[in-house]
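Much of our argument rests on the idea that a fold can be written as discrete symbols. The record that follows shows the chain in one-letter code together with its fold in token form.
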Amino acid sequence: MSSDHLLQCGRLYGAVRYDVRAPIEQVWHCHCSMCRKLHGAIFVSIGLVKRAYFALSGEDNMGMHKNWPSVLRRFCKTCGSQIISESDKDLYMVELALGSLDPDQTPGHADDKKLHIYWESKIAWYEPADDLPKTREYGDPLDDSQP
């Protein structure tokens, strides 16, 4: 996809918006208990984008909290929805909550850039029906021979 790819996205009431001027580099379906509880969902889809391609408006309407030593989560004060996460471990990337994409938007990522992370933390009563790679944490592949 070309570098002029543009996602225009925002939260429920439009108080916070963001533009992404490049395809999302990777999509993670996160099953960790922290993401599930913060988003009120059985898993959360996150898109990674380079900070240089990300622009935010309505920043004065954003709150933030640090729930892990290295992760800053930013949310809309109007609707309470998490918008982005930023990590001290990777200052060049922003993690976007892909549920915030406008209805006609698509992340634009390559098909081979999707995976389930924190798979071992997933809820027991739902099994995603796909064959995406599954990892511990951010990238340790699970051994398929393990139950």
Notes: The chain has one domain: 7-123.
